[in-house]
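User: quick one, fold this
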Amino acid sequence: MPKAKNHEVYWKKYNENKLKNAIEAINNGMSKREAAKVFCIPRSTLQFRMYEKFNQTRHGSTTVLTHEEELCLNLQESAKNKLTVLSDITLSSDPENEPLQNYLYWPQTPVRKAKHEVEKTLFILTSSTYKEMQDRKEKVTTEKEKEKESQKLERENKRKKQIEQKSKKKIKGNTLPLNKEKQQSENKMVSTESCSSHVSKSPFLNHIVIGDMETMPAEENLLEDIEMEPETITKINYKTDEQKPYPTPTIKPYNFKENYYSATTAKTAPKILWGVTSCGDNPG
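Assistant:
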């Protein structure tokens, strides 16, 4: 076990007068280590006191007055307790409601300059001001707790909505999605089937089936324009349930002329001789 120092070493064995003498000796040339041994002051305290920005406070901890002491500050209570007031103080017309704090010669306390509210507080506090400070702290803590609870509720609601949306989505199986080309071809097939629903399923593909519709007379006028032989024309009964085929029109063949190529075009038109093409009279 390592040897521990006696607890007496850590006891405070110096006063402010010793500190001042030690600091003067250090400024005159003595080292801090020697001053710590001579004056029995730890080296860290000497270094802290010699810091440039060090400011020693004149007062200790803040004192809080009791309710009885606070009542003594009022003139009405002071009259009951027979407190003497200096003759130099000039009282106002209604001194009963005003506190004695405005007329006494209080010592000038230094102003505290700090960031925290606790450090900015006065050196002497009344019970009412002390209660106000505590109420402010409680309000701040309650507001923070309410904000945390509201944030938790918002997060829980968001999670519930996400879970509901995921449950509504359809679960896809192991089937792979079709390519775009295959989907387009399938859509075309479906469209052709819907369009060809009015076409007959008979072996005669050229025959068209006409059903019972109100727009048939308009279609009749279109068919009259086509030249048809009188033998092939057949009448159609729209009231009958059976659907009869409509004959196709007879188209005359094109009369091909033998002397189609004239003398002018024969020179320019190509001729095939012995598997060789030529663009003139000379076959070579």
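User: anything notable?
Assistant: The radius of gyration is 59 Å.
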